[in-house]
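Project outcomes to date are best conveyed with an example. Our students and postdoctoral researchers have been running inverse folding experiments weekly, and each run begins with a structure described purely in tokens. The record below, which covers 141 residues, was selected by the lab manager from last quarter's runs and is presented without edits.
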């Protein structure tokens, strides 16, 4: 194996591990996600453990990354937004609305699509169309 293939192999392994975690945790089951979001009805709090675990892993990685000058496979770390603006809030609102209505967010939707779940096809198609539309609007502006 060449060293040029290493970043792709690491990305594949990371994606496979995340996909497995999403499937095992129930994040790819829209009814479970909607049950978690339904705090006024029959609320299912089990995804709190999934989110708590994800936040804990992120916090450890974030803290460790602060000691590095650059990531292993890139020239620099991505920059965080300097301020919370209307575009960021609107994007968060659309993301949350899509998650609540469909029971999918992009990662679990792609995992479900790869697993052959029919409902994921509609969501992923709409998601890709939305990304394309956003790019068209942004380029035109």
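After processing, the design step wrote out the following sequence:
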């Amino acid at each position: 194996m060449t060293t040029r293939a290493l970043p792709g192999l690491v990305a594949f392994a990371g994606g496979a591990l995340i996909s497995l975690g999403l499937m095992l945790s129930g994040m790819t089951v829209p009814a479970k996600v909607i049950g978690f979001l339904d705090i006024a009805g029959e609320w299912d709090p089990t995804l709190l453990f999934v989110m708590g675990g994800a936040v804990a892993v992120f916090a450890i990685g974030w803290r460790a990354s602060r000691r590095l000058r650059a990531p292993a496979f890139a020239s620099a770390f991505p920059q965080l937004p300097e301020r919370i603006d209307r575009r960021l809030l609107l994007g968060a609102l659309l993301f949350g609305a899509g998650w609540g209505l469909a029971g999918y967010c992009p990662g679990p939707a792609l995992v479900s699509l790869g697993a052959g779940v029919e409902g994921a096809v509609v969501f992923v198609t709409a998601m890709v169309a939305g990304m394309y539309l956003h790019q068209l609007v942004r380029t035109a502006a």
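The mean pLDDT is 89. Helices lie at 6-25, 30-37, 47-65, 86-102, 106-114, 118-140. The training component of this project remains on track.
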